[in-house]
Design brief:
Strand content: 35-45%
Largest sheet: 6 strands, antiparallel
Structural class: mainly beta
CATH architecture of the largest domain: 3-Layer(aba) Sandwich
Strand order of the largest sheet: 42-43-44-46-47-48
Helix content: 10-25%
Number of strands: 70
CATH topology of the largest domain: Rossmann fold
Shape: elongated
Radius of gyration: 32 Å
């Protein structure tokens, strides 16, 4: 509503600045989870297998199995299954049958469910799911001939399964009194023997034929890792610093006193070498000669624990783990690195926070969450400021409060030095002990109000009261939590899963044990690309950051899961605007119009796309034609999106001429010819298509062409203004809307001539501002404008929010009319804007409640164009505020706009005026004007889709 202040109350009564109608919320999807895909594992690698073809298979706490090319280091395949919150879906063990038909996988599906998934390794499909144990499966092994599978679990049992009998259970070993961590099957004569190692310190030899324990040996330490060659058994534990060697009768052969804490064991294919990983410093992976078990060589490249080890062949060792879950292939003779497979992420060892500024460190120091901070970002301004080095003024988390103190001490099942957290209070000590079911250790901890926050292993992050009772479980991390920082109600955590998580602790006051999900999840790559996402799946990213995340799609416990890159679902979930709302504590469920499973079930698969025309790498023509082949995959075809150097420049929907009269060929494909304008220099032209629901994107097919010209290429500026003084309903009359339109047009034409070849203006006023005329004018302009041009839309008149949606009030909309029938809806305007081919466009709104238009622009721009389109909106008010007119013969917003365009300080060093520069000026000065003259706060709102594309309005 745009009125002078003295008529403001009347205006509200006449048409009403209506508050949004609440939208129904949807339950968050449990089928799809947004997960990192960093070209490497993001949590502990628990197991490694080498195939006959020298493929490397690794399994991790990050809930994925990955297959790597041992020559190039590239990922060849993901093998995925059902996952859930917290630990659900973590993979602790894998085993491959000798014929490489079956891949057995031990999955954490809850502490009372010991699930084994059997995959067909060749196809990646799930063939069988076995509810094998009453607790998590810790180890798996096939017999050498592939007839049997053995499993060990936290229910203190080992079980033997018949492969030929569809993995039917044939025996249960009940000897152990604690977790069974290691299992193997060997054959002597005509009998098979099971070997088991347990946390109870016992290694046992069990006859499968006679179903009896043959022999056992007990150590003072837990036994957790087993390996066998043709004649020996090697065993070690998480503690003890020793490796024990036995023959196949369980007779002791040798005790290796290691300089390290050995974890993980494997023999070379010829049995001549034994490799041992490492649990603690010194981080040396060691090779032993199996003739006398003397050390042969040590590998020193890892900077942290290594649990997964093996051999590519008899000359090449493999070790997986360390600081960033890296995989090394190295020469057994000189420990020279042959190949390093590593993701783009780093573990987060420490964090800090100061308001919206957070910091982190990726260098390990053994000082419990207090490693040095190295980089920082501002959550509010990251698009503008990026990643920085400054870490001043950061807060951690305090371990003292009101005379109380938190310390840790040694204990627990494995004797970890920080297994017990001690609260010293009023001369008493209250202990909080961690075990294998609750994170093992207290890596980082501190006080929050009348509570204690503590992070441990396996992603455990808990809050306790001062009696040591758990009151909240923070679900998000999948690796050890190493850093905590607190500012007010905002908790920041970082861990070995390479993520930073932001938490709102106001939820801690809930009754019972509160399960809290992060407000935001953050990943920053080694090259400072970043991506931020919410539990609902909405995300924001730097230009190169989005490729590091995707959606893990559960398809049920008995089916393999799928991974869908966010590139395929950008149009629904790339929402930078909602990231900021999440940071402000807003509930995002009303924005979840369609969750992932709805998109995939209702919309179907995306088409596939291929550029079939041939093009040279260099072009002498600025305009080129590209022939595209689009093939339907069952989900239909809605539109094509054309990108140039990563920015959307054109959208061709099925209503346009390019699609019209096209018929699918017999192969289910259609061919489309598309003209593209090249810019000076390198042009990466990419084409993408969506399915019929316009919900899932296809692959992106690209070509690169160099175009060089000495000509100065200028674009044109098109200005469309819609303004109404004299409404058909006289009670809506305004005084300065047309004056605003005239002044804006005049100013833009003047400054536009400095940077544009031509400036075209289209003005519609008063009785001509009807729905029909507006859409007609948009169509006319869309036929004149090109992708190289810039388009500006200026509205001055009445606006309102109705049913939670912004509407512009045209000339012939009366107060008695239903606004939703006669007014120009947000959707109508956005659809019209989306059909304007200029990829740089600006909307300027001088109406009441115009801030409501911002959310619509954010979602529609992305739905129509995908990400990274140069589109912006600057509105006169929030979605609940009025826009005042009567300031020096203008609306106060328009007056401030004109002032910005005339202020030399707003122009950049090239004497050009950008929409961002104008927006910053207006946002600062507008509330000052309204408060000074009317004691009324009016705030401008600004949204710009692509921070990398600056939109120039003119020059000096």
């Amino acid at each position: 509503m745009k009125k002078a202040l003295f008529t403001l109350l009347i205006a509200i009564l006449i048409i009403g600045c209506i508050n949004p109608t609440p939208q129904t919320t949807q339950k968050k999807s449990e089928i799809a989870t947004l997960k990192l895909n960093t070209n490497g594992h993001t949590s502990i690698i628990n197991d490694v297998i080498i195939t006959k073809d020298k493929e490397i298979i690794t399994a991790s706490d990050d809930k994925s199995i990955r297959v790597w090319d041992s020559v190039t280091g590239e990922e060849k395949q993901k093998i995925l299954g059902e996952i859930g919150k917290g630990k659900i879906g973590m993979i602790y063990a894998i085993a491959l049958s000798s014929n490489e038909q079956f891949l057995a996988v031990g999955v954490n599906m809850g502490e009372n469910r010991g699930v084994i998934r059997i995959y067909n390794y060749q196809t990646g499909t799930v063939e069988r799911v076995i509810e094998a144990h009453n607790a998590v499966v810790l180890d798996l092994a096939f017999s050498a001939d592939g007839k049997y599978l053995i499993s060990g679990a936290k229910d203190n049992l080992a079980k033997i399964w018949s492969v030929n009998d569809k993995f039917g259970l044939i025996d249960t070993i009940k000897f152990h009194t604690n977790f069974v961590y290691g299992v193997k099957i060997i054959k002597k004569g005509d009998d098979y023997y099971a070997i088991t190692a347990s946390d109870d310190g016992q290694i046992a030899l069990y006859s499968m034929r006679d179903r009896e324990l043959i022999k056992s040996d007990k150590k003072a330490n837990s036994l957790n890792f087993l390996a066998t060659n043709q004649q020996h058994i090697a065993v070690c534990g998480f503690e003890g610093g020793k490796i024990w060697i036995y023959d196949f009768n369980l007779k002791p052969v040798k005790t290796i006193d290691s300089k390290t804490q050995p974890n993980g064991l494997a023999y070379s294919p010829n049995g001549e070498l034994l490799i041992a990983g490492v649990g603690e410093e010194p981080n040396l992976v060691t090779l032993y000669n199996s003739k006398n078990y003397t050390p042969k060589s040590s590998f020193k490249q890892h900077e942290n624990a290594v649990l997964a080890v093996g051999f590519l062949d008899n000359k090449t060792a493999i070790s997986a783990g360390g600081k960033d879950n890296e995989i090394y292939l190295w020469n057994i003779e000189n420990a020279e690195v042959k190949l390093k497979i590593e993701g783009i992420g780093s573990k987060v060892w420490s964090v800090g926070v100061n308001g919206d500024e957070i910091a982190w460190g990726s260098s390990w120091r053994k000082n419990y969450g207090k490693s040095p901070l190295q980089k920082s970002l501002n959550l509010k301004t990251i698009k503008k400021s990026g990643i920085r080095g400054g870490v001043n003024g950061m807060m951690g988390i305090s371990t003292t409060k009101d005379g109380m103190e938190l310390i840790h001490k040694e204990g627990g099942e494995y004797g970890y030095e920080n297994a017990i957290l001690v609260l010293k209070k009023e001369g008493k000590e209250i202990e909080i002990k961690r075990n294998s079911l609750s994170g093992y250790k207290h890596n980082c901890y501190g006080f929050y109000k009348n509570y204690i926050v503590s992070g441990g292993a396996n992603g455990v992050l808990q809050i306790f009261n001062f009696d040591g009772k758990e009151v909240a479980n923070l679900l998000g991390h999948t690796g050890e939590v190493w850093g905590l920082a607190l500012d007010g109600e905002r908790l920041v955590s970082g861990g070995s899963d390479q993520t930073i998580r932001i938490w709102d602790l106001k939820q801690v006051e809930k009754q019972g044990v509160a399960e809290i999900e992060p407000q935001l999840n953050i990943f920053v790559s080694k090259n400072s690309d970043w991506v931020i996402w919410t539990p609902q799946g909405f995300f924001d990213s730097s230009k190169g950051g989005a490729k590091y995340i995707g959606y893990h799609i559960n398809k049920g416990s008995d089916q393999e899961a799928k991974f869908v890159s966010v590139d395929r679902l950008y149009n629904l979930f790339y929402r930078p605007d909602l990231i900021q709302k999440a940071l402000d504590g807003k509930d995002l469920t009303p924005y979840l119009k369609r969750n992932i499973e709805q998109v995939l079930i209702e919309g179907g698969l995306a088409p596939t796309i291929k550029i079939v025309s041939k093009h040279s790498k260099k072009s002498t023509k600025q305009n080129i034609d590209i022939e595209i082949k689009v093939c339907d995959n069952g989900g239909g075809v809605e539109n094509l999106k054309v990108y140039r150097n990563g920015t959307a420049i054109k959208r061709i929907d099925k209503k346009t001429k390019a699609f019209r009269h096209q018929q699918l060929a017999r192969d289910g494909c259609l061919r489309i010819m598309q003209n593209v304008v090249l810019v000076n220099g390198t042009n990466k032209i990419s084409i993408q298509a969506t399915n019929a629901k316009d919900s899932v994107d296809s692959n992106r097919e690209s070509i690169v062409i160099d175009y060089n010209t000495k000509k100065s290429i200028k674009s044109n500026l098109h200005i469309l203004t819609l303004s109404i003084n004299n409404y058909q309903d006289k009670s809506l009359t305004l005084s300065y809307a047309n004056n605003d339109s005239d002044a804006i047009t005049k100013k833009l034409k003047k400054i536009g001539k400095k940077v544009f070849s031509e400036v075209y203006s289209y003005q519609i006023k008063d009785e001509n501002v009807t729905m029909l005329n507006i859409l007609k004018e948009f169509k006319t302009i869309s036929q004149k404008i090109t992708s190289e041009d810039t388009f500006i839309l200026f509205l001055s008149g009445h606006g309102t929010m109705e049913g939670g949606v912004y509407h512009f009030i045209p000339f012939d909309c009366h107060n008695s009319d239903s606004v939703t029938k006669k007014a120009v809806s947000q959707k109508s305007l956005l659809d019209a804007l989306a059909d304007i081919p200029a990829y740089k466009s600006v909307v300027l709104l001088d109406t009441c409640q115009s801030g409501g238009f911002e959310e619509g622009l954010a979602s529609t721009v992305i739905e129509k164009f995908g990400t990274r389109s140069g589109r912006a909106i600057l509105s006169a008010s929030t979605k609940t505020q009025n826009a005042i007119e009567g300031y020096e013969n203008h609306g106060v917003f328009t007056h401030t706009l004109l002032e910005a365009m005339s202020n030399p300080k707003v122009y950049n060093y090239e004497d050009k005026l950008s929409v961002t520069g104008v927006a910053h000026f207006v946002k600062k000065e507008l509330p000052k004007k309204t408060m000074k003259k009317w004691k009324y706060l009016q705030n401008a709102k600004f949204f710009k889709d692509n921070s990398d594309v600056e939109i120039i309005l003119g020059g000096k």
